[in-house]
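User: Predict Tryptophan synthase beta chain's structure from this.
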Amino acid sequence: MLAGMSGERITKITLDESEIPRRWYNVAADLPSPPPPVLHPGTLQPVGPADLAPLFPMALIEQEVTTERYVDIPDEVLDVYRLWRPSPLFRAHRLERALGTPARIYYKYEGVSPAGSHKPNTAVAQAYYNAAAGVRRLTTETGAGQWGTALAFACAQFDLTCEVWQVRASYDQKPYRKLMIETFGGVIHPSPSELTAAGRAVLAADPHSPGSLGIAISEAVEIAAQHEDTKYALGSVLNHVLLHQTVIGEEALLQLAKVGDTPDVIVGCTGGGSNFAGLAFPFLREKLAGRMDPVIRAVEPAACPTLTKGVYAYDFGDTAGMTPLMKMHTLGHDFVPDPIHAGGLRYHGMSPLISHVYELGLIEAVAKSQSECFAAGVRFARTEGIVPAPEPTHALAACVEEALRCKETGEPKVILTALCGHGHLDMAAYGSYLAGTMTDRELSPEDLKAAAAGLPVV
Ligand SMILES: *Cc1c(COP(=O)(O)O)cnc(C)c1O
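Assistant:
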């Protein structure tokens, strides 16, 4: 029964469709103290449901603040999850052998979803709750296009119009995500656009603006706030997004139990923190209950080191300073990270819930340079046969580091990682690595100081 004991090697640990978790897990219910409240930028008072109602349906606002330990997954959402869930958990025998490590490495693979990443786990839930509330259209921003793709797919499932503002620079450079969004029925605009006051103001100042995630958020929010039948959807950072992603960790718990293993180390990459939280929070529940004791490690890019180098302070979620203030590890909303290939990890802040858990000392964090990450990504592709998205190569680099440490010490640790997406549309990034033209720029203390100087005074 145990992997390796019967002589029969288990590589892919699957679950039956009937074993898809029926509930999402809310870690806030089990923490020793609640996370600090989100504040209104004008009054500096905690925001209430009425403040958020123009942007989100009430069901999601309730999930944002709930203290219940579990939230039932609606049947309609489970029905769509069945297209790719349960996702497989793999034992990385070939990577282990290549590294010569006694560690047992497992990866939970979310690249099997329609968008090729973990993002549909929340996109489908958000589209469902909006449709159930009578909303007809969702707006959002997208950088590289992962989130826009996931939301366009989800909207197609529930007959919603999906309108995506994609940062101009990536709209021009990465046409395939745009075409995927359109194939799923989404409408896509380069941002800045002429369709919003925010976009027009930027274009008036600079007709050739390459755009930014901050500008794209402003445009998507503006349209949602102006129309009764339109709301806005966010792909990371917020509590309800992390909640929806816990289906990943709940499945992984069942899958590891099937092979009789318990993780000693869990690693995941963090942009806004949703795939990491999705895998790690159900294991954190087990850790807090004393049933296991894994080290839980977030891995961020050295070019955007929010947890390891940022400050824990109230800051805006967007560059323009329009959103409520969230207490989080942040480099400052003015911080512009180097254009590293892991576009999904270039966010100035960290999810408030992960930031709080980090402050409580329940997780740790490390930062990795992109060359080290791509080296791990290529090694992984050549052994395991999956080309990882640039983002999870960060988790893989930390995985390789831990496995090599085990080789030194002879410890047969169990390492679990989130392989949150494939890199089939990121081959240009691999091209740059393979051609030897990838660079790592060190962030100077001055860069960090300058960005933090723009933090709002609370
Ligand atoms: C969006 C994205 C990320 C970063 O977002 P998180 O909320 O930190 O998970 C990481 N990996 C992939 C594949 C993504 O699409």
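The longest helix spans residues 393-409.
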